[in-house]
Amino acid sequence: MTGFDGARGREQQVTGLLWTVMLGEKVAIDATAVFAPADAEGTVRRIQIGSGARVGAYALICGGARIGENAQVEEHTIVGKPEKGYAVGEFYPGTGAYTQIGAGVVVRAGAVIYAGVQAGPETVIGHHTLLRSFVTVGEDTQLGHSLTVERAARIGDGVRCSPGSHITSSCVLADRVFLGAGVRTVNDRELIWHEVGREPDLVPPRFERGSKVGSGSVVLAGVIIGENALVGAGSVVTRDVPAGATAYGVPARVRDRHGVRRRITHEKAALP
Ligand SMILES: CC(C)(COP(=O)(O)OP(=O)(O)OC[C@H]1O[C@@H](n2cnc3c(N)ncnc32)[C@H](O)[C@@H]1OP(=O)(O)O)[C@@H](O)C(=O)NCCC(=O)NCCS
């Protein structure tokens, strides 16, 4: 189905197909956009497109996608794709889910958003950024281009991520976190890969509110970057960084702002 507009704000029932698309007022949908309402098991979910929203050329919108008012879904994007195939010990059968793109969200050309993602109002999802299944992103967050955000990661409000980072599955970026370019997060302590009888112990890192991580840093499994802490560029962070501290180097150590290493003792920040 292509090339319709929602100027009359009605539910559009497509003759001969077992699905519906709900259109708000004054939506603009490019004639080449494609709608795929059924998942791999044949379950059809309604697609909703809010008033004033725009869907660009060659976008693929899957069943269960709810695109908020005035959202912009640019060219060559995929929204609500059900995950199918084997990954990290699980088989994903391609069953869909509801995918929420909030009001005023901009999904830049080439972004891929899997089923079950929730993106809060006014958030920007950069070019070629990948949000895997059930990722949540808060309000007014800017995700730069070419990020990989793995399954069920949680990103808060007012977060800024520069381009090219990898955010591992179930990782938490609390509100107002800043990541520089090319930050790598790791959730596997031992790098077990296909070792018979052993399961990996996957523990994602956590970034507390207002923390900042410099470009090119690697943050290892289970590490907590404390509230308003700062990690210098190019660091390998192997231990928790306390709230408000500055740490850098390989391995990262807490230092004052003149480079002098500080010995600190601190309680490991409690997980919520
Ligand atoms: C850590 C940082 C905040 C500076 O801290 P600072 O205390 O003001 O650092 P200074 O410039 O006074 O340098 C102190 C010493 O630490 C060293 N140093 C500074 N940053 C470092 C880093 N990231 N890694 C290793 N050493 C570093 C300096 O070379 C200097 O060493 P020296 O005394 O032997 O010459 C800064 O260097 C940094 O890494 N910022 C991150 C910027 C970034 O990635 N932005 C994202 C843009 S998208």
List its salient traits.
single chain, 272 residues, mainly beta, UDP N-Acetylglucosamine Acyltransferase, domain 1, 12-stranded mixed β-sheet, 11-stranded mixed β-sheet, 0% helix, disordered N terminus, disordered C terminus, binds coenzyme A
Under the CATH scheme, the architecture of the largest domain is 3 Solenoid
Q: Determine Rg (CA atoms, Å).
A: 21 Å
Query: Main β-sheet: number of strands, strand sense, barrel status?
Result: 12 strands, mixed
What compounds are bound to the protein?
Answer: coenzyme A
Alpha plus pi helix count: 0
Gap from first CA to last CA = 46 Å
Describe the 3D structure.
- This protein has 272 residues and is mostly beta strands.
- The protein has 2 domains: 1-84 and 91-158, UDP N-Acetylglucosamine Acyltransferase, domain 1, CATH 2.160.10; 176-272, Hexapeptide repeat proteins (UDP N-Acetylglucosamine Acyltransferase, domain 1), CATH 2.160.10.
- Helix content is 0%, strand content 32%.
- It has strands at 11-13, 20-23, 28-29, 34-36, 47-49, 54-55, 60-62, 65-67, 72-73, 78-81, 84-87, 90-93, 99-101, 106-107, 112-114, 118-119, 124-125, 130-131, 136-137, 142-143, 148-149, 154-155, 160-161, 166-167, 172-173, 178-179, 184-185, 206-207, 212-213, 218-219, 224-225, 230-231, 236-237, 246-248, 253-255.
- The strands form 5 sheets. Strands 3-6-9-14-17-20-23-26-29-32-34-35 form a 12-stranded mixed β-sheet, with no helix packed on it.
- The model is unreliable at 1-18 and 267-272 (pLDDT under 50).
- Residues 162, 180-181, 214-215, 230, 232-234, 246, 248-249, 257-259 line the site of coenzyme A.
